[in-house]
Design goal:
This protein is mostly beta strands. The strands form two sheets. Strands 2, 4, 5, 6, 9, 10 and 11 form a seven-stranded mixed beta sheet that branches. A four-stranded antiparallel beta sheet has the order 1-3-8-7, with no helix packed on it. The termini are far apart. The model has no long low-confidence stretch (mean pLDDT 97).
């Protein structure tokens, strides 16, 4: 299994930027996809971005496309989410997730391992 820890959340004004990081430990020598999801109070956890083991396949939710960038460094066992032009609607707890595969997925149910989450708050 893989253990995941997110860092980098915080409070920013609309239009600002944050960079989230997720560090993986455990069985990190096998291929696994990484994803970012977010959940606002009273709402379902929603897909944000995903990246395949090789980094060759990347997918984003329409709501963040053009503003967020996902990347990974397998040598360091990390995945990052660069968030630019932040909006109040981006306010949520952001979760890092993983599952063993050479592919990728936008679906919550596909992911087996989750971090504890990090709060991102964007003020107006």
């Amino acid at each position: 299994q893989v253990q995941l820890v997110e860092t980098g959340g915080g409070l920013v004004q609309a239009g600002g930027s944050l960079r989230l990081s997720c560090a993986a430990s455990g069985r990190t020598s096998s291929s696994y996809a990484m994803g970012w999801f977010r959940q606002a109070p009273g709402k379902e956890r929603e897909f944000v971005a995903t990246i395949s083991w090789s980094g060759g396949i990347i997918a984003y939710a329409d709501s963040v496309k053009g503003r967020f960038t996902i990347s990974r460094d397998n040598a360091k066992n990390t995945v990052s989410l660069q968030m630019n032009s932040l909006k109040p609607e981006d306010t949520a707890v952001y979760y890092c997730a993983a599952y063993y595969t050479s592919g990728y997925s936008r679906l919550r149910s596909t992911y087996d391992y989750w971090g504890q989450g990090t709060q991102v708050t964007v003020s107006s």
